[in-house]
């Protein structure tokens, strides 16, 4: 993802045990070796990044919570529904949260009833996305040539209509429910 000043935001994943100290010591040579099969553009990005700029974190998500509010407190974004990056939906869900919350506050003002409506609207969608993202990431990280070949073959066999429905469910967000007075 391009940033200002000619900078690029990127991330890569690698299978490792949780809190593996060796991952924090990775250098350019380690990155290049691990991602040697990737295109030349990827290799250039890996080589250009100074070792001290590399950040390493375990990938995690949260167990779903039943509501995003408690009394007068309301959670949004990753605080409410942190997810693995496998579907690229973390920031998307936070933006959706902001749009829904803005609609609800404009109609109903601040308060626990609005927070309850927010939870009712947002929990099912965000829970479904978090639930899909984790296993997708595990499957993407399968090791071994046979396992990867099986994964790639199965992925190609998914009917186009099913893939289209899944994409529409992700990218067509219905904000209309937050524009009604149904409190």
Detail the topology: elements first, then pairings.
Blueprint: H1 21-24, H2 28-34, H3 40-48, E1 69-70, E2 73-74, H4 78-81, H5 90-108, H6 112-140, H7 145-157, H8 160-171
Antiparallel strand pairs: 1-2
What does this structure look like?
The protein folds into two domains: 4-53, no CATH class; 69-179, no CATH class. It is built from eight helices and two strands; from the N terminus they run αααββααααα. It has 183 residues and is mainly α. Strand 1 and strand 2 form a beta hairpin. Helix 2 runs antiparallel to helix 3 (40-48) and helix 5 (90-108) runs antiparallel to helix 6. The model has no long low-confidence stretch (mean pLDDT 88). It has helices at residues 21-24, 28-34, 40-48, 78-81, 90-108, 112-140, 145-157, 160-171, and strands at 69-70, 73-74.
Defining key terms:
183 residues; 2 domains; two-stranded antiparallel sheet; 8 helices
Q: What's this model, at a glance?
A:
This protein is mostly helical and 183 residues long. Helix content is 53%, strand content 2%. It has 2 domains: 4-53, no CATH class; 69-179, no CATH class.
């Amino acid at each position: 993802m391009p940033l200002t000043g000619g900078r690029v935001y990127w991330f890569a994943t690698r299978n490792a045990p949780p809190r593996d100290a060796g991952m924090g010591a990775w250098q350019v040579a380690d990155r290049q070796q691990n991602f040697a099969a990737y295109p030349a553009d990827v290799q250039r990005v890996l080589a250009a990044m100074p070792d001290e700029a590399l950040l390493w974190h375990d990938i995690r998500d949260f167990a779903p919570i039943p509501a995003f509010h408690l009394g007068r407190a309301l959670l949004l974004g990753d605080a409410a529904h942190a997810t693995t990056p496998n579907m690229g939906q973390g920031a998307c869900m936070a933006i959706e949260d902001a749009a829904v919350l803005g609609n609800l506050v404009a109609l109903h003002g601040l308060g626990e009833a609005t927070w309850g409506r927010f939870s009712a609207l947002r929990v099912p969608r965000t829970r479904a996305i978090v639930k899909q993202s984790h296993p997708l990431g595990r499957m993407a990280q399968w090791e071994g040539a046979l396992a990867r070949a099986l994964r790639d073959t199965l992925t190609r066999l998914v009917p186009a209509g099913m893939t289209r429905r899944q994409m529409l469910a992700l990218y067509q967000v219905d904000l209309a429910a937050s524009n009604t007075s149904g409190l």
